[in-house]
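Team,

Forwarding the record for the chain on the shared tracking sheet. I've put the sequence and predicted structure together so nobody has to dig through attachments.
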Amino acid sequence: MGSTRRRAVLATALGSALAAAGCIPLAATGIAVGTIMAVDRRPISVQAADTEIELRAANRLPDAIRGASGVGVTSFNRRVLLTGQVPDEAAKAEAERTVRQIAGVREVFNELEIGPRASFGAVTNDTSITAAVRGAFIERKGLSVHPVKVVTENGIVYLMGLVTTSEATGFSDAASRVAGIRRVVTLYEYLSDEELAKINAR
């Protein structure tokens, strides 16, 4: 199977998964996911692996812990960020253990908080902050929104991505200037200029 065909098949699979989860309308998945995959710095196989990790975590956590509905799972380059709220320390530890057992997971960042689920107002505010951070990236000269995944939880902004050191500084500074955030947590993996040039040449 050629690379173009593989990309189309994976884009369709990822789009169907996202649509099934209610993330984007099914009719839009071909365009939306295909565009995202085209500019993502991760290999297509890793993008697919990240989607699979998130889906497996969503399936396993409800059986593993109480309060699983309050847990957010974000996988980027097979490094998993756990955000949200759980009822106690035991649930927090078990959530991490469950995710670590998923095939392909390289690392887990357990940022779960102990307490009740976030209110609708808090969730809405986090969504607004994420949009504002992405807007700040677009407005900053020399930056693109695509290399970095933005996750906001309770006013804390998490940045995950494959970036050069100079890009990292720009992304972090742009995010830190957005109003309403509590702090910025960076979970980058770093690329040399030569590595980035090879990725861009793919």
